[in-house]
Amino acid sequence: MENMKRLPDAEFEIMKVVWEKESPITTAMIMEEIGDKRKWKAPTVLTLMRRLVERGFLRTEKKGKERTYYPLISKEDYLELETEKFMKQYHKNSFLSLVNTLYNTKEPSEKELDELLKWAKERRK
């Protein structure tokens, strides 16, 4: 999993649908969920699905005329890997640097600060 590459935005959009739905998933399900919003045609979705299979994110099976797809990587594993890369690249693995950046972008509400403090205390136990 360490050599896993970051997903391009279009492929990540598809994976979000795959992770959200119960397996197996079909291209028709992808088209129904995001095809119209993104103005994708079926060949585009098929190409993106094929790329995800080639990259090891999906496994495919042929059932009659239709292909079905199964995730090989969980959403949690992918997000953990991406977050780890992000923290190393942009924040030198500093949680405080990340929090400062977030705070400078959007001041948290009192409720969010309380939740963050509660979360931090629970993690230290």
UniProtKB/TrEMBL annotation:
Keyword Nucleotidyltransferase: no
Coiled coil location: none
Pfam family, one: Penicillinase_R
Keywords: DNA-binding, Transcription, Transcription regulation
Gene Ontology annotations of biological process type: negative regulation of DNA-templated transcription
Keyword DNA-binding: yes
UniProt-recorded Gene Ontology molecular function terms: DNA binding
Family: Belongs to the BlaI transcriptional regulatory family.
Protein name: BlaI/MecI/CopY family transcriptional regulator
Organism this protein belongs to: Ornithinibacillus hominis
UniProt lineage: Bacteria, Bacillati, Bacillota, Bacilli, Bacillales
